[in-house]
Specification:
By secondary structure, this protein is an all-alpha fold. It is 67% helix and 0% strand. Pfam families: CMD.
Length: 132
């Protein structure tokens, strides 16, 4: 039986925290501050959870989808709102991909290399061609 993306795996987070307590504490404090809702927050907790649902779909994290959908539903959110937010995220991601295609066009036409030469950006023999 596969344990890949089993919700039970989330119970192992305390074990991970113990492996890097200082960095984990910083992250958990950051998360706590970000998700706080109240007078100092410009957006509601419900809106923050809807954003989290949409981002979880972009990052493809089933754990985050599960957790944030549950929190959003508990705050009165609807599946129609979730679906609309997911479609906005999908459209935004697709738009970013399309706009990044300008780099492919420039590379194909050789403009990127010409621009680098114009800026006198030397490339050493040990420098990687791509960081992905």
């Amino acid at each position: 039986m596969s344990r890949y993306y089993d919700r039970e795996n989330l119970k192992l987070i305390p074990d991970l925290v113990r492996l890097a307590p200082q960095a984990s504490a910083a992250y958990l404090n950051f998360e706590k501050v970000v998700y706080q809702a109240g007078e100092e927050s410009a957006i509601s907790g419900k809106t923050k959870e809807l954003i989290a649902v949409a981002v979880a779909h972009v990052t493809g994290c089933p754990y985050c989808i599960d957790v944030h959908v549950g929190k959003y539903k508990a705050l009165g959110g609807t599946m129609e709102e979730i679906m609309e937010a997911v479609l906005v995220a999908a459209s935004t991601r697709a738009g970013a991909i399309l706009s990044h295609a300008t780099h492919a066009l420039l590379s194909f036409e050789g403009a990127a290399a010409e621009k680098a030469e114009e800026r006198n950006v030397p490339r050493g023999p040990s420098e990687p061609e791509c960081f992905c």
